[in-house]
Design a protein that fits this description.
57% of the residues lie in helices and 7% in strands. It has 131 residues and is mainly α. It folds into 2 domains: 2-76, no CATH class; 89-124.
Length: 131
């Protein structure tokens, strides 16, 4: 038996739920939500589980829509600016200049600025916003 406590944590959408439940049923595995067992091969059990999947997908879509609307409003009000650089612009310019002149290694810069080597690499090779 395979049991979930909440159906909305079981599958992201109806198609995925259908695929998983069909696979479980094909292997003879019973499916339970909470303390209740539902038979995927029974028309009423299938209807109930499909309804749960439909509602779970709807709730997820509403959540995503609200998130997008909230982010759009925050962006409009200047509150959402994306991930900010770990180091200020003057530090990033200094890193590029010093590394280009060969004054210091990538590892030394990472230690000096207390950031990962990958951060220094992105700054040096231009993958980071040049603000």
């Amino acid at each position: 038996m395979f049991t979930v406590t909440k159906f909305d944590r079981f599958a992201r959408n109806m198609a995925e739920a259908n695929e998983i439940l069909t696979g479980l049923s094909g292997r003879g595995v019973l499916f339970g939500v909470g303390a209740t067992i539902h038979d995927w091969s029974d028309p009423f059990g299938r209807l109930f589980l499909q309804t749960l999947a439909m509602v779970a997908e709807f709730e997820a879509n509403i959540g995503h829509q609200r998130t997008r609307e909230g982010m759009a409003l925050a962006k409009k009000n200047g509150k959402l600016k994306g991930k900010q650089p770990k180091l200020p612009a003057p530090a990033r310019r200094s890193i590029r200049r010093r590394y280009a002149k060969g004054e210091v290694s990538l590892a030394d810069l990472a230690t000096e600025y207390s950031v990962g080597r990958s951060t220094i690499h992105r700054i040096i090779h231009g993958a980071e916003d040049p603000r």
